[in-house]
Amino acid sequence: MTILVTGGLGFIGSHTVVALIEEGFKVVIADNLSNSSLEVLSSLEDITKENIPFHEIDIADEKVVISLFEEYDFNGVIHFAGYKAVGESVSEPIKYYRNNLLTTLTLADVCKKYGVTKFIFSSSATVYGDNNVPFDETMQLLPTTNPYGETKAICERILTDLANANTDFEVALLRYFNPIGAHPSAVIGELPKGIPNNLMPYITQVAKGNLKELQIFGDDYPTQDGTGVRDYIHVMDLAEGHVAALKNITTGVHIYNLGTGQGTSVLEIVKTFESVNNIKIPYKIVDRRSGDIAFSYADVSKAKKELNWSAKRNLENMCRDSWNFIQAL
Ligand code: WQD
């Protein structure tokens, strides 16, 4: 089976490409390199020992997407391509709505035209809003605190309506919690451009000496130590979750949480990273970051039951692999 992976040179996309090829799938990558680099392609070919067709294109451009579907006989798509910086989405909402909605609308429309009915969408736990934990897939979604989260919720609705109108479509909406870690080879991992927004890439830059200290956004949340609690999942577990979804997908639209079901605080992550890697991470408690919520972690029973998938790697693996990747740069 040949799978189109949009955003396939990004953090989660690249790890999913490895998992797909190891499972015997043929993969074609489309990426516009807005938040990734071409070096990742050669790293992927080194890891998989396969030549991987790559097209530097904008998925929002229908003409180029059509020519891609003319060139390859795709059996399914995994759609990662999209902007994902929460803070940037607040300051540049139009950029986020245009890109994240247009890419999804264009890709879904061309899939329909070419009879490609397996569609796996990269969604996010953000769509739950400040709901009661653990978040489960049947929950009524609350408004998210940012345009990024809204684009994910809207894309979920677009793909749900597509599946309802075209009963041969098999759609999986995968809601990621907090992916961290890196491939054990340490040749691919998380390396955002500029100052990292997310916790782990910030910690690894402090560990590397490129940033002075970690700023912890608030220690006055109603959590065990006052700092924010999240469901951190190893990016390889997340990648394997995509393979499980592709192999088990059926007609209709199916929503799955991809998390561990465990909540971990910022301070617990810092302490685990320090002890696993024997490195001190200096930090300072500062004000809360606007839009942050106290708790976010998953009820993961549905993916276990229907996809026979659950996360296997623990926090120590995540902290070690994140650091190994940055150290090897
Ligand atoms: C985690 C915790 C922060 C940075 C977002 C998106 C989600 C997904 C992952 C795209 C929080 C604290 C963080 C720092 C800190 N993105 N923190 N200092 O906000 O849970 O989720 O990124 O798919 O959709 O919503 O992730 O890593 O930014 O924050 O104290 O420098 O770490 O307050 O409690 P978040 P995060």
Strand order in the sheet with the most strands? 3-2-1-4-5-6-11
SS-based structural class? Answer: alpha/beta
Rounded to an integer in angstroms, the radius of gyration calculated over CA atoms is 19 Å
Ligands (ions, cofactors included): UDP-4-deoxy-4-formamido-beta-L-arabinopyranose
Shape: globular
CATH superfamily descriptor of one domain? NAD(P)-binding Rossmann-like Domain
Number of DSSP-assigned strands: 14
CATH topology of one domain: Rossmann fold
Q: What is the level-2 CATH architecture name of one domain?
A: 3-Layer(aba) Sandwich
Helix/strand order, N-terminal first: EHEHEHEHHEHEEHEEEHEEHEEHH
Global mean pLDDT: 97
| Strand-residue proportion | 15-25%
* Unreliable parts: none
- Helix content range of the residues, please? 40-55%
Largest sheet: 7 strands, parallel
For the record, the CATH class of one domain is: Alpha Beta
SSE inventory with pairings:
Elements: E1 2-6, H1 11-22, E2 26-30, H2 39-48, E3 54-55, H3 62-71, E4 76-79, H4 86-91, H5 93-113, E5 118-124, H6 147-165, E6 170-176, E7 178-180, H7 199-208, E8 214-217, E9 229-230, E10 232-234, H8 235-248, E11 252-258, E12 264-265, H9 266-277, E13 283-286, E14 295-296, H10 301-307, H11 315-328
Parallel strand pairs: 1-2, 1-4, 2-3, 4-5, 5-6, 6-11, 7-10, 8-13, 9-14
Antiparallel strand pairs: 9-12
Helix pairs in contact: 1-2, 1-8, 3-5, 5-6, 7-11, 9-11
This protein binds UDP-4-deoxy-4-formamido-beta-L-arabinopyranose.
